[in-house]
Specification:
The protein is α/β, with parallel strands linked by helices and about 375 residues long. It has 13 helices and 12 strands. Strand 5, helix 8 and strand 6 form a beta-alpha-beta unit.
Length: about 375
């Protein structure tokens, strides 16, 4: 007697794997994207202070105004996005909360939404929750898993309402170039398409090109919901706090809907987010330097394994190697690796049909764990070729 959406929205394949190993001490877990850094002290101190000073009641549905003002500073400083903190910015319950709101305010039943594949598993789910029609667009290895405007244009129909962007991309680490982002923006303006920009990995970039954010481009503010999660950037995954920005019309609709879903994100997390936005940023720089070293380590290590191919990911903290040479479905390979090597990865098809032949390895873990996992894979995988 449950609603049909319970069938239409699949459970996360990532969580299915992760749940199998909860509590196990004998495995090398490269599954869930959780930075192995602690939340910086100045952010934790701001939360403690908020509790001590009584900021423990309801807030505005879009969040405390002083927090929104701080986040508006961050958006201008880091993303070149001008946002009026009064009516063009909303605090949400993590990036997931913002993604749900964005889909719910934009999508009517039957509207088509183009989303990346391989891509973050919840993008598909959120489109289905809004009764939209998910239309996958393949991210290709030969393009560094970046989106191309010409590929998007081929997917557009009279029913296309929105495009989901995620760059750097989870699970591939692919980054869409600035040149292509500008082309995509022009295409969305021409075709009157909205953009849901999932910028969860905004800081985790390893190339030399200065980051460009589609919500900052001319004439895109009115049709873009830009979502910036604090989870990855400040090691705040459990705090469940993010900021979304767009036109006053879009943000106003999200704020009205949020009132009926969760009222507002936790007041304490909001105050912590304000401190993160305007406080010292050296913690972010340190984290990025560490992840760059790990990226280089895991890329070289994987390429040294016979049968594995991978180019250095441009961003995020995931490696997405091509393991098609072994001739084994990625789902089956993941389970064989778990049983035979105790290295826990995620099959590429957990992120869409075009993930077949790939695995996702999260390198937000210590170098010791990475080295041991690589050693075990190097012993086991080449045997599959002979």
């Amino acid at each position: 007697m449950l609603a049909a959406r319970n069938i239409d929205v699949p459970a996360s394949e990532i969580r299915k794997i992760y749940n199998k190993i909860i509590g196990r001490k004998d495995v090398f877990d490269l599954t869930v994207g959780i930075p192995d850094f602690d939340t910086p002290e100045h952010i934790k101190d701001a939360a403690k202070k908020a509790i001590d000073e009584g900021f423990t009641t309801y807030t505005h549905n879009a969040g405390y105004i002083d927090v929104r003002e701080a986040l508006a500073q961050k958006l201008k400083r880091d993303n070149n996005i001008d946002a009026n903190p009064v009516n063009e910015l909303i605090c949400t319950a993590g990036g997931m909360g913002a993604l749900v709101l964005a889909n719910m305010i934009l999508i009517d039943p039957g509207d088509e939404v183009i989303y990346p594949d391989p891509g973050f598993v919840s993008h598909y789910a959120h489109i289905k929750l809004a009764d939209g029609v998910p239309v996958s667009i393949q991210l290709k290895k030969e393009n560094g898993f970046g989106l191309l405007a010409e590929d998007i244009e081929k997917k557009i129909t009279s029913k296309t309402k929105a495009l989901v962007l995620n760059s750097p991309n989870n699970p591939t680490g692919g980054v869409t170039s600035n040149k292509e982002l500008k082309k995509i923006a022009d295409l969305c303006i021409e075709k009157d398409i909205y953009v849901i920009a999932d910028e969860a990995y905004e800081k985790f970039r390893y190339d030399t090109e200065n980051p460009l954010f589609i919500g900052s481009l001319p004439d895109m503010k009115e049709r873009t919901i830009s979502i910036f999660s604090l989870s990855k950037t400040y090691a705040m995954t459990g705090w469940r706090i993010a900021v979304a920005t767009g036109s006053s019309e879009l943000v106003g609709a999200m704020t009205k809907l949020q009132e009926h879903l969760i009222a507002m994100p936790t007041s304490i997390a909001q105050k912590a987010a304000g401190a993160a936005a305007v406080g010292p940023q050296d913690c972010v720089d340190e984290m990025l330097r560490t992840f760059r070293k790990r990226r280089d380590l895991i890329t070289k290590g994987l390429n040294d394994i016979e049968g594995v191919e991978i180019d250095p990911p441009g961003g995020a903290f995931y490696a997405f190697p091509d393991v098609s040479a072994y001739g084994i479905k990625s789902y089956d390979l993941v389970h064989r690796l778990l049983e035979e090597t105790k290295v826990v990865t995620i099959h590429g098809t957990a992120f869409g049909q075009y993930g077949e032949g790939f695995l996702r390895l999260c390198y937000a873990v210590s170098t010791d764990k990475i080295n041991e996992a690589l050693s075990r894979l190097d012993i086991y995988l080449p045997k599959l070729l002979h």
